[in-house]
Write a structure and sequence with these properties.
This protein is α/β, with parallel strands linked by helices and 397 residues long. The chain folds into two domains: 170 residues, Type I PLP-dependent aspartate aminotransferase-like (Major domain) (Aspartate Aminotransferase, domain 2, 3-Layer(aba) Sandwich); 138 residues, Aspartate Aminotransferase, domain 1, CATH 3.90.1150.10. The protein has a seven-stranded mixed beta sheet, with helices on both faces. A four-stranded antiparallel beta sheet has the order 8-9-11-10, with helices on one face. The protein is globular, with a radius of gyration of 22 Å. Bound molecules: pyridoxal-5'-phosphate.
Length: 397
């Protein structure tokens, strides 16, 4: 009887193949540009295996990279993983691997803002046209597919506003038209969803966030299925993408505690989120595990857990009051990231300006938090003091 190993076990064992680790628990750092050979025959063999974990040249990777790549591919459920120096590079690398001049791209409207900028600036200049679609479009995506549409890009939940997409439906329709489906899967991390079972062809992680987990490394991964792995791998190589083995070592080290960290982030964030939901100042939560979040039903169906990142919308407010709320926190710091062990907070304005297929009412302030591993009671006390500062400004208006 075959026994399917659980994710918690895989997080510990994935990629720790002795051909790379030589028995060392954490695969050591192999720093290399040049790999040398004694014979022409050895060089021929290395060339033949250069794309399959053979030692060939530093840019093709070393055992440090191979062990980590194989761990991510296994956890995501794909066949191969390309590494990039940032999450943004993984996104551009994946898009540029499958698009050429004259192609049409379908991009989710709630996408991470730099991905939108990539489409509007770089891809537009290369002759690739982008159409943005409502994250909740579902079956309606059919109407947007053209004869030259090549890629459907998804991000679920969306950045900042957190809409959860119906990924299986969107991918099924995309495949009826032979599109390549690419998902920014960073929020789920490699353990809280099964992108390839939902029909995704390429799953991207900004490893900078939860995989690294300690806010000290930039890295991206793109994992592909059988159909698209060779094309992604070769094009990423042609674009010269590679990562430092020291960074990969840290990412691989972070990966081994992903399960326990995410479980605690989730627990702390749910405690804080329930408290926020009871506050009179809060209009609604944008947390996928709450009914008030668009696509909550897809979260329940497609995800096995949440994490520390969510947003909430206030009933009313202005820039001065939102500023008073986020400034002067004892534990929350302001920073443009998430996924580390520490709590972060941002007051986000101008969302209406980065939407083109949907509308967003920017008159109500939106606050995004990343709930870290601190005690939730301390974070709640911090937020409570923030609301007192917020209310004081509002009363003086
Ligand atoms: C959803 C998402 N995707 C991609 C990225 C980009 O990752 P990186 O900062 O590693 O380039 C980010 C960064 O915040 C993100 O939040």
């Amino acid at each position: 009887m075959s026994h399917k190993v659980k994710k918690d076990t895989l997080i510990v064992s994935a990629g720790r193949d002795s051909q790379w680790t030589k028995g060392v628990i954490n695969p050591p750092v192999f720093r290399a540009s040049t790999i040398v050979f004694d014979t022409m025959e050895q060089m021929r063999q290395a060339a033949a295996q250069k794309a399959d974990g053979g030692m060939f040249y530093g840019r093709r990777g070393t055992p440090t990279h191979f062990a980590f790549q194989s761990a991510i591919a296994e956890l995501e459920g794909g066949v191969g993983t390309a590494l990039y120096p940032s999450g943004a590079a993984a996104i551009s690398g994946a898009l540029l691997s499958f698009l050429k001049a004259g192609d049409h791209l379908l991009m989710v409207d709630s996408v991470y803002e730099p991905t939108r900028d990539l489409c509007n600036k770089l891809l537009a200049g290369f002759g690739v046209e982008t159409t943005y679609y409502d994250p909740m479009i579902g079956d309606g995506i059919r109407q947007l597919i053209r004869p030259n549409t090549k890629v459907l890009f998804l991000e679920s939940p969306g950045s900042i506003t957190m809409e959860v997409q119906d990924v299986p439906t969107l991918c099924r329709i995309a495949h009826e038209h032979d599109l390549v489906t690419i998902l920014d899967n960073t929020w789920a991390s490699p353990i809280n969803s099964r992108p390839f079972e939902m029909g995704v062809d390429i799953s991207i992680q900004a490893a900078t966030k939860y995989i690294v987990g300690h806010s000290d490394v930039m890295m991206g991964t793109a994992t592909a299925n059988q159909k698209y792995w060779r094309q992604l791998q070769e094009n990423s190589y042609l674009m010269g993408q590679c990562t430092s083995p020291d960074d990969v070592f840290l990412a691989a080290r972070g990966l081994r505690t992903l399960g326990v960290r995410l479980a605690q982030h989730q627990k702390n964030a749910l405690t804080v989120a329930h408290w926020l939901a009871s506050r009179p100042e809060v209009d609604h939560l944008r947390h996928p595990a709450f009914e008030s979040c668009p696509g909550h039903e897809f979260f329940k169906r497609d995800f096995s857990g949440s994490n520390g990142l969510f947003s909430f919308v206030l009933k009313q407010g202005n820039l001065a009051a939102a500023t008073a709320f986020v400034e002067g926190m004892a534990h929350f710091k302001m920073g443009f990231s998430w996924g580390g062990y520490e709590s972060l907070i941002l007051a986000i304005s101008g969302i209406d300006k980065i939407r083109s297929a949907t509308r967003w009412d920017s008159s109500k302030p939106l606050i995004r938090v990343h709930i870290g591993l601190e005690a939730p009671e301390d974070l709640i006390a911090d937020l409570e003091a923030g609301f007192a500062r917020f209310n004081a400004v509002m009363q003086n208006n």
